[in-house]
Amino acid sequence: MSHTKVSNQILKSIQNTVNNNKINILNNVYNKTDLSNVTNNIIKHVGRNLHLQKNHPINNIREIIEKSIDSTSSKPFIKYNDLTPVVSIKQNFDDLGFPKNHPGRSKSDTYYINDTYLLRTHTSAHEVECFQKMQTLQNNGYLISADVYRRDEIDKSHYPVFYQMEGSKTWARDNSKKFFNKIQTEIDNMKKQLSTFQNLSIEDVDYTHEPESVNCKQSHMTDEETSILISHMKRTLELVVANLFMQRYKNYASTSSKSNKKDEEVIPEIKMRWIEAYFPWTQPSFEIEVFFNGEWLEICGCGLVRELAYKNAGFPKETQMGWAFGIGLDRMAMLLYDIPDIRLLWSTDERFLKQFRDKEGIFKFKPFSTHAVMSRDVSFWLNTPVHLNDFMELVREELGDMVESCSLVDEFVNPKTGRKSQCFRINYQHLDRNLTNEDVNELHKGVEKKLIEQFGAEIRN
Ligand code: DAH
Fold first, then answer.
1. Is 279 in the pocket of ligand 1 (CB under 6 A)?
2. HSE on the CB side for 311, CA within 13 Å?
3. Residue 306: is its pLDDT beyond 60?
């Protein structure tokens, strides 16, 4: 990745702006409304496209997954890697069957542009439009990789912008034996690939056979259809996970063992398990977890696409069936490369970038000297309650990447006045340079000033 390429991307992204009544994103102008809550700090990330930067860890993970999935079928999946992050509320929520009161829709969780548009909170927002395109493209599988945006807490693993990959495969329903045999042949091929990993252990869970349970089969589908699709989906995702973790274990083993140990001796078991899950646009739904560093980690959600999504894409009633999944690319990159702080993924620091340049695959990231973390507490009285994410957003807007983490350390309500007092601890750290005590004092004053301006807070000393 050349320097110029990174700086061009950054230049492009700083043309996105929010002012008093307009929002400009990727050269489109939107009128603000009361719902608008995107900030300059957030939209400057639009257009960075880390998932397409050669040798960037997020790009590498994307490529490994794309390759694994393409190996499951004779036809490569269509790749959508540059869909705009500005989508309608309808695309992000309604078309996928999100109930009106779903917490994901709230202003404290989502970045709204105005009453019609938002910054997508997940790549599933494109599912219906991709199903529509499928009808003319003569290809039943696609993969989408893209940046997604969520208001959230601040710590080493949460950043308001992150990357996801979405994938789906659909079949026109057909009850002939030949049709089922074709799907079964793909499953058998995947099983063959999986059997080449000697150290795989997979604990499975069936769908619920109890009718009307949230995880039962959809009523228009048969048991045979449901079982074969679940098997196809699970084997596909097991291959993805096995390939990712195998690359990590192999590479780490070969770099760490100057000893005479053979690979089999040092490569640990890859342990996965399936659990039931719930997503509004899939039924039944599942999640795959991996046992890693002593704990079970959720890796990827998935399920059989609900009829509602095919209907919204304009397919004739009950003619399609298929599966869909979504996986977080930053999270996988951090786990597999041992990247300790999510902010590093956005770094333009040579000490970060040079470790990935001209290198392929998965390897261990070597942390470079990080600068000291300095903590400051801020305590204040509030007359009206403030959502935790609104506080976090104020801190992000004021401090950008100079905040390492932030947490609520104390709160209480004065029984006489009913007023609430909160105390937050902000951990200041710049990834590229040292902050002095004076820098931090100045920054902290800026946060206090914004708390007074935006929330009418009364700072306690
Ligand atoms: N969109 C989900 C998320 O952001 C991930 C996901 C789960 C995508 C299940 C899917 C799916 O397509 O079927 O957490």
1. yes
2. 10
3. yes
